[in-house]
Design brief:
Blueprint lengths: L20 H12 L17 E19 L5 E14 L2 E7 L3 E4 L4 E10 L9 E10 L9 E9 L12 E15 L2
Antiparallel strand pairs: 1-2, 1-8, 2-3, 3-4, 4-5, 5-6, 6-7, 7-8
Length: 183
C-alpha cells in the first residue's frame, strides 16, 4: 500500500482547523506537563531491559471509513492514523499507516501490536506496546526495537454511519516512546 506523501510541517494543516479549543488546551498542558507517566505503564508493557531513545508528543487524527461489515450493516471502521510528532515544541516527524513513524532525519520504523491496555475514557484509543518489524534510514530510530503509545486522549469514534465509503476524522493526542535494548 502506498504511504501518504506529506510534508511533516503540513501533515495536519487541513485537519487542525476542526480541533476543538479544549483539545488544543489539553495538548498544550500535556506538552509541558512533567513526564510522570512511566510509573503508570500497564502490565504487558515490560520495559525493564529497554532504554528510551525518544519520547514525543503526537497531535493528529484517527481516520475512519464507513464500510459494510460481515452482516451487511454499515459502520465506522478504523482506516489509519495521521499525526505530527512534536518534541520540545518542534516537529520531529510524522505517524501514519503501517503503523509507521518517520522522523525528519530520515529514520523510520513500522510496528506490530504486542500488548494493549484501555485508554482512560471510553473516547480514548488504547495504549499500545508495539514491536518494531521493519526499520529504514539512519537516525534517531535506527536501533529502536519497540514503541509505546501512552497517555492517549480521544481518537475513538462510533457515531452513526449512513453513507458507505464516507470518511470521518477524529482528533487524538498521545505520547510515543521509542525504545532500544532487548525484548
Amino acid at each position: 500500500m502506498a504511504q501518504p506523501q506529506l510534508k511533516s510541517d503540513d501533515a495536519l494543516s487541513s485537519a487542525s482547523t476542526h480541533f476543538h479549543p479544549a483539545l488544543i488546551m489539553t495538548a498544550a498542558v500535556l506538552l509541558f506537563a512533567p513526564a510522570a507517566h512511566a510509573a503508570e505503564v500497564p502490565a504487558g508493557f515490560d520495559t525493564d531491559r529497554l532504554t528510551v531513545v525518544a519520547n514525543v508528543h503526537a497531535e493528529g487524527v484517527q481516520l475512519y471509513e464507513c464500510k459494510e461489515d460481515r452482516t451487511g450493516k454499515t459502520q465506522w471502521q478504523f482506516r489509519e492514523p495521521l499525526a505530527t510528532l512534536i518534541q520540545d515544541g518542534v516537529t520531529v516527524g510524522r505517524h501514519f499507516s503501517g503503523p509507521s513513524w518517520e522522523f525528519t532525519d530520515g529514520s523510520s520504523v513500522i510496528g506490530k501490536v504486542e500488548a494493549e491496555a484501555p485508554g482512560a475514557t471510553k473516547d480514548d484509543i488504547p495504549w499500545l506496546m508495539l514491536r518494531v518489524m521493519k526499520r529504514g534510514g539512519d537516525g534517531v530510530l535506527t536501533n529502536v526495537i519497540a514503541v509505546q503509545r501512552l497517555d492517549t486522549h480521544g481518537g475513538l469514534y462510533s457515531g452513526r454511519c449512513g453513507t458507505e465509503e464516507a470518511f470521518h476524522v477524529e482528533p487524538y493526542s498521545a505520547q510515543y516512546v521509542f525504545l532500544t535494548g532487548r525484548l
